[in-house]
Inverse folding.
């Protein structure tokens, strides 16, 4: 059996009860933290909370060399963990299909996702979101500024009146990790829209004190939002309840949100 377990958004306490029980019952526990991570917990915090040893796999160790995970699942009960949910905005459907090809039974125990948190914390209605996108570091995409694909996704959503969730890049290297901040992302996107374009930064979703700040992109670029992880949202057309939520919960300037009201 191979069980995919979402660890949730922030720390070792974010997991569901079902996920905790699956880890407790497993013979071996694997995880990856290159697609996302628990910003409020270290690996040893998670291991201590579950009284287990977690075998962390690199991207290559999951996508190109999954046999250790699959062999463990064929011989007993294996759990594969990620932050958030293991099947949302990740590559792990491929791992599940490889397990099925070998006749290994699988199941998924979901965790809270960044998409759910983005809607819940900002008050932007989840069915009014369009296609999401990821803003990479310049060194990750080999160019300067914002890739055309990111601009096109946001513009297509805006033309349809839809909100855009912009995931911010995580760069994991052997000796360090780097996280794109909400202010850096806002500064990059501000170059493509006028000074009044509205953005919303969500920082540390799932933590006891998440931050939600709505303002023009230029203004967001001049602020600091603290420790990772951050997300950036670009609102489309706003329902009056969404307008009120951005003003009351995110401190949005009323003039900026009134322009988006439909």
């Amino acid at each position: 059996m191979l069980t995919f377990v979402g660890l949730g958004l922030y720390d070792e306490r974010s997991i569901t009860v079902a996920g905790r029980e699956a880890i407790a019952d497993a013979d071996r526990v694997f995880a990856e933290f290159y697609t996302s991570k628990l910003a409020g917990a270290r690996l040893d915090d998670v291991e201590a909370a579950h009284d287990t040893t977690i075998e962390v796999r690199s991207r290559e160790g999951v996508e190109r060399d999954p046999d250790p995970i699959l062999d463990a699942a064929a011989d007993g009960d294996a759990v594969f963990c990620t932050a958030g949910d293991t099947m949302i905005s990740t590559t792990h459907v491929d791992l599940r299909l490889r397990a099925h090809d070998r006749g290994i039974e699988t199941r998924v125990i979901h965790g809270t996702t960044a998409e759910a948190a983005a809607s819940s914390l900002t008050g932007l209605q989840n069915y009014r979101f369009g296609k999401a996108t990821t803003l990479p570091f310049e060194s990750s995409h080999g160019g300067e500024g914002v890739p055309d694909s990111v601009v096109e996704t946001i513009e297509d959503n805006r033309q349809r009146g839809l909100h855009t969730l912009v995931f911010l890049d995580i760069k994991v290297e052997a000796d360090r990790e780097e996280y794109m901040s909400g202010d850096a992302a806002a500064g990059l996107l501000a170059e493509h829209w006028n000074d009044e374009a509205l953005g919303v930064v969500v920082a540390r979703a799932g933590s006891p004190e998440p931050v939600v700040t709505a303002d023009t992109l230029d203004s967001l670029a001049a602020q600091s939002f603290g420790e990772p992880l951050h997300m950036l949202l670009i609102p489309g057309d706003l329902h009056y309840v969404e307008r009120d939520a951005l003003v009351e919960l995110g401190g949005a300037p009323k003039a900026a949100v009134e322009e988006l009201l439909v």
About this structure: Residues 114-258 form a domain with the Methyltransferase, Cobalt-precorrin-4 Transmethylase; Domain 2 fold (CATH 3.30.950.10).
